[in-house]
Amino acid sequence: MAWLILFAAGLFEVGWAVGLKYTEGFTRLWPTVGTVLSMIVSLGLLGLALRSLPLGTAYAVWTGVGTIGTVILGIALFGESADIVRLACIGLIVAGIVGLKLVTP
After folding, report:
1. Cα–Cα distance for residue pair 68/59, rounded to 1 Å
2. What is the DSSP letter of 53?
3. Which one, 64, 68, 71, 91, has least CB within 10 Å?
4. Which whole number is the average pLDDT over 46-70?
């Protein structure tokens, strides 16, 4: 269950990272509210996952899920580069997350 909570925390991290773009420097009310709520939920879920997962593993997976999701949405929403080297690097992050899951009890 901790892994599902951690994955959800990573998804909310994506929400606040992408939300930052829409706040336009915190000048837009509703995107700012959504971004702050996503931050709170993300950190809260990370804290719950840390009850049973090692800190280093949980933090690495949380930031990895956030990074992967943010890159994918950056490509889809903002037309950011999707060149092969960038995608290969994302693949390495995925491999790292899978590796950490496999070696963590």
Report:
1. 14
2. S
3. 91
4. 96
